Amino acid sequence: GGGDGDESEDTGSEDSGSEEESDSGSGEGSEEASGDFESDQWRMVTEELQGEVQFVYAQEFAKRIEEKTGGAITVEALEYGALGSETDQAQLLQQGGVELAVMSPGFTGGQVPDGQIFSMHYLFPTDQEQIHQILKDSEALNTDLRKKYEEHSITPLAYWSEGQMAWTSNTAIKSPSDWEGLNVRVQESPLMRESYDAYGATVQSLSWGELYTALDRETVDAQENPIFFIESASFNEVQDYMMISGHNNYVAMTTANTEWYNGLDDNVKAVVDETVKELQDWVFDEQKKQNEAGLQAIKDEGSTEVIEFDEDQIAEFREAIQPVHEYYREEVEGIDPELFDKLKGEIEEVTGE
Amino acid sequence: MLATLLSIMIILLLLNFPMMIPLILAPVVIMLIYNPNLSMDILMKQLMTGIESPVLLCVPLFIFAADIMTAGKTSQRLLDFVGSFVGHIRGGYAVTTAAACTMFGAISGSTQATVVAIGRPMRERLLKMGYKDSQAMALIVNASDVALLIPPSVGMIIYALAAGSVSVGDLFIAGIIPGVIVFLAFAIYNIIHAKVKNIPLGEKASWKERFVHFRKALLPLGFPIIIVGGIYTGIFTPVEASGISVLYAIILEVLIFKTIKWRELPGISLSTGLVTSAVFILVAGGQLFTWVIGFAGIPRMITEAVLGTDPSALFVLLMVSVFFFVGCMFVDPIVVILVLTPIFAPAAEAAGVDLIHLGIIVTFQAALGSATPPFGVDIFTASAVFNKPYLEVIKSTPPYIVMLIAIGLLLVFFPELSLVLIQD
Amino acid sequence: MMRLEEFILSFSIILISIMIVGNVIAREVFNSGAFYFAYEVSKFAIIIATFMGIAYAARKGRHISMSAFYDFAPMKVRKVMMIVINAVTAIVMFVMAYYTYNFVLFEYNTGAITTSLEVPRYLMAVFIPIGFLTAGIQYIRNTIVNFTAKAKDKVYLGIDAVDYNDQREKDLKMEDISI
Ligand code: NA
Ligand code: NA
């Protein structure tokens, strides 16, 4: 997003002065900070690049923490790439190499199988406001799932959506049967194989670096990603249709290293909690802005027909995927059926079904 | 910190230590000194991260296919066929090598794979023609880098993502003219070089001889057709094409020509494994190095200090050239593009640089950097594949580096060279 | 006959070929995702080849180095350098074996599994310390060989590799890769 340019310059230049101390900053304490906050430097690593949703989230988090602590605590936002893969970043957080991270629940290397709940199709409603509310208020997520992550030194402070996942393809997909015989490239896992199998499609594994060309030459037929990312990676250039299908959302977690978080002074912890809470609404607007801009850019580019599912189509897909919800509950290794049932109940409460 | 890091590395390098030692040792020492509280496990994990990118799989597979074809008759028949057409022309083989590298680079998208697949057979013939080994290798290493400029370029795809709203399709098209310029420069240099050094000429083959060679090369010629055709029709990806080329090499050599027996294949794959290990341990070590400087925030620290406020477009582009060039001398180009692009792109855009133009500069410098000592990854590959001392590989590269730097400046000063094809 | 390390190295390359080709055939001929594990198994194999290959490449003197100054040194100096280089490299290999062994324990304790086959991830990592350990042992052997009688008028880069500087007259074969 171009409007965020100024912020990124600000945080950037402050960080550069403090590189030498890296993560051992808390003991230095040369200047007693203003107010009640001891000066400290934290790092928040993200899975996205500058300008993308997770990164601007981290920048906004940094800005607010700094304001609230009168400049005593600074946070450096780190983009994807320099510190290895997503799983590397998760491990870095677990070991306290960084204090904070924005991560998607799936990248903990199967340590918390329940994180897969977010990748299930048509579990959450399609209404974005309702999803927002569930992610904020769900006890199943914010208490039960949090405990499971905390066993692995990851404390999820908040869950939020980066927007809907969309399907892109070279054939129009309007009902489950349109998937029949298609090869789709998604992050490979047993749950994903089962999900697309329910529509008659086959999951193909393919490296990310080859995906653009593979779509162009129809080596694979389809893929899924958040709308803003589809635009950013130019997949719309090589696909004829984009389905706003409501099948899923790209959920991210704001996380802290558990031991570090529990050891924070109460006033500092309060500031962190408060900031994370405020940012829920802020990031909802931010992702909306980015996804709308992405969608507009895709429409402007003009080579891709955008198909938005109506209620009937969604109902048809929802029906087709039901056996996979059962499969998840009964068959998927290591998941907690009670957590699934509880979340499902909470979702039904919100949607009023 | 950076000074410590670099001094350790350079001293060990000059002392003839295996290159994996500085690449591994420097990051470990830095961690012990500057982050003693942080577990070493995080750093060790990078050894796996560095080599687990699926795109890298085409390196051992193309090496394997080339090993099979070299042990058998395929590459000989192909070379005889090419030779019957260009053998009597001054610099003909060198130009053919440059063209083959450019074309193969275009389909494989990987500079390392090109070094292996084209370099092995072509080097043999260049040596027979009277070229010095260092000359042959310098040509192969540098011509292979054009692969990064010609679609489908993995480097461009990564750049498009890192830069945000940039069209991969436009980048692909924008790379064509720069790629052709590089090829022409190499071709002209080699023709002049052949004249000056008086490289002996082969006999001009008659059309009858050419036809005989063509018939013998018929099945081997299926090789480029299957690979190029398979990729362009989408039957397989470039990485998968490397697997298919192994399959085709086995079909030809084992089943049809019967030059190799099944039981000989493990021996061939053993030598492939040896070369793979020698190269990949450096890729793994390079990832340690990258991780440590990334963790210390060094790339951003330096770039922000250098750019200052309100830089001009020209200044940004020159700085981009320097940073990507130097970065890729040490670290894998993909990582450099991922890390540095998000830092430079906003500044460049603010200064009025077209992001497609920036992408071409970035990809070009990444290509140049990976063929430039001391850590250019293609030099490692050539050194391992040809089993030649490092110095021998780089001895004749200076003219190429000079040509490439000049073309790099040309691309900076004349944005039209990148942009003319995509303007409506 | 192949030694175990040679067999492992050779087999991992063949395994990658089978996986990648199998995946293409499954997708294009049978429109199936049956080789869904292709890239994961290949990743396994490439890690094995890389780390189990260190010792083998050391024995054959095939690790890449910048020999600019070394090549100009007289035989005695080169021999001293090779002894020091091999000994120090052996130490670094053992240190790395220790660190990566700890990393394997870490992976073991997290219980992390792979995404496709859902097998424990430490199984992949376990080859790294084994590779460094065997490499360390090999570099010690490379050091010792330079003290033996057969190294009286030669320098050994690895126990199977005589320094190319001592062979200059003999017109070195271009491809001395043993096939
Ligand atoms: Na399109
Ligand atoms: Na893009």
TrEMBL record, chain B:
Q: Where is the TRAP C4-dicarboxylate transport system permease DctM subunit domain?
A: 7-417
- Its topology with respect to the membrane? Multi-pass membrane protein
Say if the entry is tagged with keyword Transferase.
no
Q: What are the entry keywords?
A: Cell inner membrane, Cell membrane, Membrane, Transmembrane, Transmembrane helix
Gene Ontology MF term list: transmembrane transporter activity
List the PANTHER family hit by this protein, alphabetically.
C4-DICARBOXYLATE TRAP TRANSPORTER LARGE PERMEASE PROTEIN DCTM (PTHR33362:SF5), SIALIC ACID TRAP TRANSPORTER PERMEASE PROTEIN SIAT-RELATED (PTHR33362)
What's the protein here called? TRAP transporter large permease
TrEMBL record, chain C:
List where in the cell it is found: Cell inner membrane
Please list the coiled coil stretches. none
Q: Which Pfam families match?
A: DctQ
Q: Does the UniProt entry include the keyword Hydrolase?
A: no
Record-level GO cellular component terms: plasma membrane
InterPro entries the record matches: DctQ, TRAP_DctQ
- Residue ranges annotated for the Tripartite ATP-independent periplasmic transporters DctQ component domain, each copy included: 17-146
Which keywords appear in this protein's UniProt record, sorted alphabetically? Cell inner membrane, Cell membrane, Membrane, Transmembrane, Transmembrane helix, Transport
Its transmembrane ranges are: 36-59, 80-101, 121-140
Please, which domain of life does this record's source organism belong to? Answer: Bacteria
According to its record, how does it sit in the membrane? Multi-pass membrane protein
Q: Which family does it belong to?
A: Belongs to the TRAP transporter small permease family.
Name of this chain's protein: TRAP transporter small permease
Organism source for this protein? Allobacillus saliphilus
